[in-house]
UniProtKB/TrEMBL annotation:
Its main location: secreted. Residues 1-21 form the signal peptide. It holds the Pfam family DUF642. The keyword Glycoprotein applies. Residues 25-181, 193-359 form the DUF642 domain. This is DUF642 domain-containing protein. SUPFAM superfamilies: Galactose-binding domain-like. The keyword Glycoprotein applies. Keywords: Cell wall, Glycoprotein, Secreted, Signal. It is found in: Secreted, Cell wall. InterPro entries: DGR2-like_dom (IPR006946), Galactose-bd-like_sf (IPR008979), Pectin_Meth_Modulator (IPR052437).
Length: 369
């Protein structure tokens, strides 16, 4: 009796995360509201490596106050009143304690300040990702981006580097609000062969931002900020939350914002000769994204085009794609056939929402047929 009690306590302890090295949310001074002393600045330029609390900087870094002018452009900051700008080859970094082996995603907000294509190199050694910021998805010029890593050590130095070599040193991305979130690798369940089919596990979304988070392209599935899913295409997909958008199921979903250039995919384990059904929801995010939309779903060699008439006010329909597996690994993929622009703002790309993706094996295909 007593032994059983002790055992159950031990089991309970084993399942609880005993050391939580990281709290989900902003890094220390992650929104740069704490600034350098006036004596550590020359104009907007930050002069010392350690002048911004919590951060170490290298190269030409500016401390920007919201409302500051650059030429005839007014610089606006999404969170609070301050942000930083990374000049050519400039870096900001912060070292945090992490749990070795765990997966983490970083979310940050960034805006271009010049017309050129800009990129940011986000890294935690030995991993890095060069994220393109060429296309604007939100009307105020700011977008949030996600990137993920697996901790190889008990500390992680998160670096954001501008690899650009612009002629105008005042060009370079503005950065604000850098946050972290621990990712728990999802598992397939008895009711779904796919992992994370509802997209509930994913990068941190700032509670105060209403533009979602871009999950950049060319991400391998073991280091995806959207666990188990890959973004295989040229452009990002947008991760959205039910606090700011209409979401078919649960609290999170994915908006396919760049037509055929933005696809999400997952490889599922399947049994050759078995019949499967891919079930999913297609809708709109209630973000003034109006018009005739089509989501194309792919499984093995089968394709299903799901038309959806969006009034831009939310809503969804369900669809099923049935296929017979011809391999032990079947690639599931979704993309949007068309490009769509928001009706309230003709500079922002938008698109259909995909959510609640389930893959089930059909026990008795003939009876259901
Ligand atoms: C990391 O952990 C060490 C103790 O292991 C502690 O001294 C240090 O303050 C921690 N650093 C941060 C940034 O929390
Ligand atoms: C990105 O940054 C990492 C770490 O500083 C570096 O190792 C890597 O070479 C950089 N990649 C590019 C393409 O600049
Ligand atoms: C959201 O905004 C409120 C009020 O402006 C602020 O107090 C809070 O710190 C912000 N939260 C985050 C996570 O940025």
């Amino acid at each position: 009796m007593e032994a059983a009690a002790v055992l159950s306590v031990l089991l309970l302890c084993a399942t609880v995360h005993t050391t939580v090295a990281v709290t989900d949310g902003l890094l220390w001074n992650g929104n740069f509201e704490l600034g350098p002393k006036a004596s550590d600045m020359k104009g907007s330029e930050v002069l010392k490596h350690d002048a911004i609390p919590g951060w170490t900087i290298f190269g030409f870094v500016e401390y920007i106050k919201s409302g500051q002018k650059q030429g005839d452009m007014l610089l606006v900051v999404p969170e609070g009143a301050y942000a930083v700008r990374l000049g050519n080859e400039a870096t900001i970094e912060q070292t945090i304690n992490v749990t070795k082996g765990m997966y983490y995603s970083i979310t940050f907000s960034a805006a271009r300040t010049c017309a050129q294509e800009e990129t940011l190199n986000v890294s935690v050694a030995p991993d890095f990702g060069v994220l393109p910021m060429q296309t604007l998805y939100s009307s105020n010029g700011w977008d949030s981006y996600a990137w993920a890593f697996q901790a190889e050590y008990t500390t992680a130095t998160i670096k954001l580097h501008n690899p650009g070599v612009e002629e105008d040193p005042a060009c370079g991305p503005l950065i604000d609000s850098i946050a972290i979130k621990t990712l728990y690798p999802p598992k397939p369940s008895r009711v779904n062969i796919l992992k994370n089919g509802g997209f509930e596990e994913g990068p941190y979304i700032f509670p105060n931002t209403s533009w979602g988070v871009l999950v950049p392209p060319n991400i391998e599935d073991d280091h995806s900020p959207l666990p188990a899913w890959m973004v295989e295409s040229l452009k990002a997909v947008k991760y959205i939350d039910s606090d700011h958008f209409s979401v078919p199921q649960g609290r999170r979903a994915v908006e396919l914002v760049a037509g055929k250039e933005s696809a999400i995919a997952q490889v599922a384990r399947t049994v050759v000769g078995k019949t499967y059904e891919l079930l999913f929801a297609v809708g709109d995010a209630s973000n003034s994204c109006e018009g005739s939309m089509v989501v194309e779903a792919f499984a093995n060699k089968e394709t299903l085009k799901v038309p959806y008439e969006s009034k831009g006010k939310g809503g969804f329909k369900r669809a099923v794609l049935r296929f017979v597996a011809t391999s032990t690994r079947t690639r599931i993929m979704f993309y949007s056939t068309f490009y769509t622009m928001r009706s309230d703002d003709f500079s922002s790309l938008c698109g259909p929402v995909v959510d609640d993706v389930k893959l089930l094996s059909v026990r008795n295909p003939r009876r259901l047929a």
